[in-house]
Amino acid sequence: MSIASSSHATVRAVLGSLFHTPEYGSFELLERALLELDDAGFIERVTLPGDAGYDERVAAARAADELDPGSLLELTDGRYGLPGFVDLHVHAPQWPQAGVALDEPLDVWLDQRTFPLEARFSDPFFAHGVSLDLAETFLSRGTTTALYFGSAHLEGSWELARACTEAGQRAVVGKVVMDDPAANHDFYRDASPEQALADTEEFLGRVAGLDRELRAGDPRFAGVYAAVTPRFIPSCTDEVLSGLGKMAAEHGAYIQSHCNEGEWEHGVAPERYGVSDARALADFGLLGPRSVMAHCTYMDEADTELFRETGTAVAHCPISNAYFANSACPVRRMREHGVKIGLGTDVSGGFSPSLYDNIRQAVMASRMLEDGVDALVPIERRGAGRPSRISVAEALYLATKGGAEALSLPVGSFEVGRAFDMQVVDVRRPYADLTGFDVFTEPGDVLARILYLATPDNIRQVWVQGRQVIDRG
Ligand code: GUN
Ligand code: FE
Question: How far is the CA of 77 from the centre of ligand 2 (A)?
Answer without folding.
Answer: 39
